[in-house]
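Quick one: structure tokens for this chain, please?
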Amino acid sequence: MSCNVLVVPEDPTYNGYILRPLCKRLLREAGRPSANIVVLPEPRVQGYSHAKKLLSDLIPRNWWHFELILFVSDADGLAENRKDEFKRLEQLAEQRTRPVKLICCAAEQELETWLLAGHQEKLKTMGWRWSGIRAEVSTKERFFQPFLDRYGDPASPSQGRERLMQEALANYDGIKSRCPELQQLENRIRSHIASLP
């Protein structure tokens, strides 16, 4: 059985290449292997504040026919603050005339951390420890960009992000064990999928 899922990233240009394969796997684990994953094409999201504004009105109004909307942002050291904002956004989505199921999740500290979590052997070649990566607020600049420079592909549209995420997903259980917020996201998706007809 299929399921239409809209994914809303903070930065669709590059985050979409990481989120699409990851969300495909999340839905597979939740029992919907043929889920149709769409990364929000328009309007082009420009950061966390812009995404929140779109999720408050425009996205639920225009994408209500999707069975699930996922908003995946960076925590940026503000995970606790974002929990209340996420709860409010999710409640607003369910209170609409045409309610939508919105699930929000913040990657600690940045989305790229999830990709790095699936590449432990490569991280060792860089001389990095996982605890340092996990604690770093600026993961993208401090760790991910040098990793992408070494293992990515500057000639591809994703600069190697999509391939590296696919490779990381071979160690999906390892990613979840290193990034508990991803396991929580999977659990919430599974619970919602179980409630669908």
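The beta strands are 4-9, 36-39, 68-74, 102-107.
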